[in-house]
Write a structure and sequence with these properties.
By secondary structure, the protein is an all-alpha fold. It has seven helices and no strands. The mean pLDDT is about 90.
């Protein structure tokens, strides 16, 4: 049983990682090394926020993550984790724009946490500040 639990946790972590990446802006101005560092930090932060949920919220949220992964199959013939980046964005967008509020609400915590950590990341802040200074200098 312990191995089975580890497998479930690994799947949850990968789902959170892939879902978080959907919300991270494309970083054409960052080196690949910086991008990986930021993505890892964002994933770690989102994971920590989900882990901080009370158990009575955490359990249904994790179950919904499993369901989210599988519900892409009717449309894309693959679970979410196997979709390419464009398909992932489309699929997540369909959840964000769904008429059913509970479906939209599922995405909000991950999106909010991912964007909060991304824009508060020291590397991103340093780059944004230097870009602002460069723009101000050009004026």
């Amino acid at each position: 049983m312990p191995g089975n639990q580890k497998l479930k946790e690994d799947l949850i972590n990968e789902l959170i990682k892939q879902l978080s990446r959907v919300f991270i802006p494309d970083n054409t101005f960052l080196d690949i090394e910086y991008t990986k560092t930021i993505e890892n930090d964002v994933t770690e932060f989102v994971n920590s926020q989900i882990a901080a949920m009370p158990f009575f919220l955490q359990l249904p949220y994790k179950i919904t993550l499993f369901i989210f992964n599988l519900l892409s199959i009717p449309s894309y013939k693959k679970p979410f984790l196997m979709l390419d980046s464009k398909q992932k964005r489309e699929y997540v967008s369909s959840w964000e724009n769904n008429k059913i509020s509970k479906i939209r609400d599922f995405i909000k915590p991950i999106r909010s946490c991912a964007l909060l950590r991304y824009f508060d990341h020291p590397i991103v802040l340093r780059i944004l500040e230097s870009n602002v200074e460069a723009l101000a200098h050009d004026l």
